[in-house]
Amino acid sequence: MRSITKQIILIGVCSCFLTGCWDKVEINQLAVGELVGGDIDPQTQDQIAYFHIVNPEAVAHQKGSGIKAPYYSYRVQAPSIAALGMEAAKILPRRLFPDHYQSQIITERYAKRGLQPFINFFERQYDRRTNLYLFITDSPLEDIMMTYIPLERLSGRSLRSLIEIESETTGRVSKKSRVKDLVENMESSILTVLPMLSVSGSRPTPSTDRYDQISGNQGNLKLTGGAVFKHDKMIGKMKLNEMAYYNLLRKECEVLFESMVVNGRIVDVRTAKPKVEERLFIVAGKPVWKVNIKAGLSILHNEQSKELTLENLNEIRDVFNQQVLKKADGLFHSAIIRGWDLFGLEDRIKYKTGSDWENIQKRKGGWKATKLELSVDSKVIDIGEIINPYKGGK
Questions:
Q1: Cβ burial, residue 228 (10 Å; 0-12/13-18/19+)
Q2: How many other CB atoms are found less than 10 A from the CB of residue 372?
Q3: Mean of pLDDT values over 121-127
Q4: Which of 116, 208, 293, 318 has the most CB atoms around it within 10 Å of its CB?
Q5: Cα distances (Å, whole numbers) of residue 217 to 78, 164, 246, 338
């Protein structure tokens, strides 16, 4: 009996130290943000921010007629990034809750000026999301943030899905497009490429009437290319198709799609998870970057009228090899001409040891003398459900 009494007393004492939900905040007291956009006023140099605040009633399952706004866009302007929160408090009737941000958009002019203030502020926040995708836009930020998009009602989540789908289906965009990926390269010579975003159509669509329109292209957000960053500043742009080979040579390519002309007809192939083997060494006092790409090809589309023989499969393989060689080599030399160290050669050379490497390290821009030795080894491993195409009345 005394033992049971002691246990009850012990439980009671321990219960005194339980805080419970003393700091609980109800959902209707929070302004849940899911997308944020940043710009800088060219006249006053003030910081500008747009917040997409979720409308919980519209996001939840609706029974009844009418479409409600899934989110509301708020614009604030202040002399510093930290002061943006105080300005937001003037117009938001709820406490701003940034923990559910899905994506961040920065304007091109802000990116070219330098994102150091944004990055330093972001890194100081205890509640920051390190996996936040970061986009650069060449469209007016107001148009981006005042546009309702079809299908996926929440724009921040929609942009996040765009990155993941592009990465898994075309390889043109890498999932390493987060704020943390830019931060990791801030103090080195390694460049960062972030996806660029534009509004398709002539005008934004700020009304929920958008959801009654059949056109999914007009008034939507689309990926258009890549923004090249050195440290915290944007220094140039890449085309969307170029980014596939950038990701390939960086070993960040999940899939590569190629449309080719074989025997005068179009053949489309895809390779999943191509293997890239590479090493950096010296020949005659000059750095050599040797890269070998291994790929298993799947035929997606074949307009050839000839039978799919072993000889024809070898022709497809050879055209694929030559095309990838040409495009990857072209991207490499184009980057050298523009002074873009897309593949971190300067940083790698800096940590090499030996007298030959020291001579290269002493030369300013010595990494630009790097020679690329590229080879592609592919094989058709999947031809689809039919071996030979139907010929109809031919």
A1: buried
A2: 17
A3: 78
A4: 293
A5: 34, 20, 27, 34
